[in-house]
Each structure stands twice: as structure tokens, then as C-alpha cells.
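can u pls check wat happens w/ s-citryldethia Coenzyme A
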Amino acid sequence: MSEKKAQLTIDGIDKTIVLPVYEGSTGPDVVDVRSLVGEGVFTYDPGFVSTAACDSEITYIDGGAGILLYRGYPIEQLAEHSTFLETCYLLLNGELPTEEENADFENGIRYHTMVDEQIHQFFKGFPRTAHPMAMLCGVVGALSAFYHDTLDADLPEHRMTAAHRVIAKMPTLAAMCYKHGVGQPFMYPQNDMTLSENFLHMMFSTPCEAPKVSPTLVKAMDTIFLLHADHEQNASTSTVRLAGSTGANPYACIASGIAALWGPAHGGANEAVLEMLDEIGDESRIEEYILKAKDKSDPFRLMGFGHRVYKNFDPRAKVMRGICDEVLAELGIENDPLFRIARKLEKIALEDEYFISKKLYPNVDFYSGIVLKAMGIPTSLFTVIFATGRTPGWIAHWNEMMSSEYKIGRPRQLYKGYTARDYPAK
Ligand code: SDX
């Protein structure tokens, strides 16, 4: 660690507190404030806007420049040249696989894609109208019941088996959430298909027919999973790390990440974007909604816009917009009304002083919903798709934490409640 220091003076403490400052390989330095508890003070950072919760080597984001690197590789290059599974290997292991390593990894995933037949019974307990995220959260947490006793998180090979299992099973479970909702039988994964081809097969095939899925749509699905694969210490990944810091098994940790992702301010935004575009309904009403988004007294926000870290274009949104063009052209719906509204909304917002001054740009969720809807995936399944893509990132962060020195996460608070008082005498 570097010899940089920070000096802090606090009224009421008659000494200068010297704090170590650490440099990363790139990005902001961090001030190590761990010694402050010994001085009787805490730092205060609701929402963790200025807080680094851990060291990590997995993903780097430069929000000002709109840069996203997975293990150093720019997301744009991975989206163009890699696949979702190769990217899963990269996130987990830190390097791109050799051909042999890639073949082994794909094989390892391929033979974990089925779920225990008992899991089929879990779905029977859900109403057909259950939100797919409610089902996914439940059944992934239930995976613990099948595997929790075959896991010693201190053993790298046990951690990798858990990683293979969750990456392999999420597409199967995601498709089962959809099939349960539409009342069709579950489709089994096919070992002669790639992960994304398999997912679309399990979604749209039935025992009566197996429609051929175009390579363009398979590639689009694979790239959508890849774009969502990781994103540093976002809310759901931080939830997975916090759960993991207690020693909870990885399946329970992934279930906690799914729960956190569900919120409309996070992974639920892709579903909320479609609902917003549907509500706007026509290009003539865009200005009305831009005004609502700018009105402090109106809780409405432009869904798919803004980001805690990106104060420039989300590089994933640019790639997603290109996928949108390709998929809509493939399906012959270039004039899709929702896509037209989205493009017009983006243009107007990016020229509006309010969005410019607050550095609000489209994020990954702005276009993903339009692509997924065009592919026939219902809006209610969008965040399940996000969770399926994000699983390698969640489990890579869990694995990174479990393979290094870590402490149980236990933040403190600024207490504003009653000081001690006696129970009133009767
Ligand atoms: C994801 O963290 C990640 O990495 C997440 C993610 C990932 O891959 O894991 O990238 C995925 O969650 C993307 C974000 C999806 N969410 C949405 O699209 C929902 C709409 N966006 C907003 O809710 C908001 O922009 C957040 C939640 C994304 C970020 O909120 P911050 O960082 O807490 O910023 P803020 O709420 O303090 O906003 C700053 C200002 C505020 O105005 P002022 O109080 O300064 O006057 O900008 C305004 C906000 O009111 N603002 C918006 C806005 N987003 C922020 N105004 C209108 N529309 C918006 N979308």
C-alpha cells in the first residue's frame, strides 16, 4: 500500500488524526477510516455514495468517461468479440480462457443446467399470476436445501462448483418462471445447445413444437446477458457480499441479490421503462413527461435515465441501442412505436438543460426492455433476465470475498432517537 496520508482535525478532539490513503491500479484513492471508531467517531455516508466497501479486481467503472472494464477488457470489445459464457469464465478466473479451458468450462456448465425434479413441485405452489421475480427469489433460495451441506466455502473447488451450478441453473429457472406463468410444461435444457440458444429453447419451445430461433436473436440474447454480467459494487452485488460475509451459503447469497435487484431503482428499471413508454403512448406526449420528470413535486422519474456512477453515457446503453436496431430490423419492426418514442425521448432529454446539468444519460435499462419485448419476452420477466445475466458477477464477487481476508459487514449509524429513559411507574 502507498505511504500517502490524510490528516483530520475534529472539534472536541485535541489531536490531528492521521489516516492512511491507498491507491488502486486506477480510479480514486481511498482514505482508510477504520481507526476512527477508536477516536469515538463514525463516518457518515447514507447510500454509500463516497464509500469503498472492499478491495476488488473484477470490474472497473469510470463514470465520468463512460468506461466499463471486466477484468480490464472494455465492455464494447467483449460485446463484439466474446460470449456470455467466456465472459463468465473471465469474471470468475481473471483471465480469458484458452480454447481447452473454455471447452472444459462450457462442459462444466452444460452438465449443471438441469434442476432437481423436486424444484418442479415448488413452482406448483405459486399462483400463475405470481411475479416471476417472486418465484425466482424463492426457488434460488431453495437451492440451498439441495446443496448447502456439500459446500465448504473455504475450498476453492467447492466454491467453483457452486459458481458453475448457479450460472448453469439460472437460465433454466428463469424459463421455468415464464412457463409456469403461461401454463405450459417446463422444457428441459438440451446439451447440444449454447447457453443462450438453450434459454430461448426453454422459453419458446413446447412438447408440440420447437421453433427455430434465428442466430441474430440468439446473439442478441447472449449479448444482453453479457452486458448485465457485472457492475462493480452495485446495490445487489453489495447485498450478495454482505450476506456472504456472514458465511451464508452461496445460494442464499444469490437469492438475496435477486431480492435487491427487484427494486425499480435498480434492476426493476427495465420493466419500469416499458411501463413508462406504454404510459407515454405517443410521441406527442413526450414533452409532458419530460416536465413531470423535472418537477420536484412529482415523484415521476424518467426510468432508464440516470445512474449513481455514470455521469456520461452508460457504455452498455450504446451497445444495447445497436442490438435494438439489429433485432427490430430482423423482425421487420423497425418502426416499432415504443422504439420510436424511446429514440425521441432520448434525443429530447439529452438536449434538455435539466438532464444535461444533472448528467442524466440513458443507462443499460433504457433500451433492453424494447429488445426483450420485441423478442416476445413479457415485461414481467425482464428483471429475471437481468438477474440471469448478473449471476456470474454476483458469484464472482462472492468467490473473491470468500477467497480473501474479510470481516462480517456491520455498518453503524448516527443515532437520533431517545436517550435512556425509565419505564413509567404504574
Ligand atoms: C441499474 O449501481 C449500478 O451499477 C446499477 C446498475 C447495474 O448494472 O447494477 O447499473 C443497474 O440499476 C441502472 C439504474 C436503473 N434505474 C433507473 O433507471 C431508475 C431511474 N433512475 C433514478 O432513479 C436514479 O438516476 C438512480 C437511482 C439510478 C441514481 O440515483 P442517485 O445516484 O441516488 O442520484 P439522485 O437520486 O441523487 O439524483 C441526482 C439528481 C436528483 O435531483 P436533485 O435532488 O439533485 O435536484 O438527479 C435527479 C434526482 O431527482 N434524477 C432524475 C433521474 N435520476 C436522477 N430526475 C429525473 N429522472 C431520473 N431518472
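The mean pLDDT is 95.
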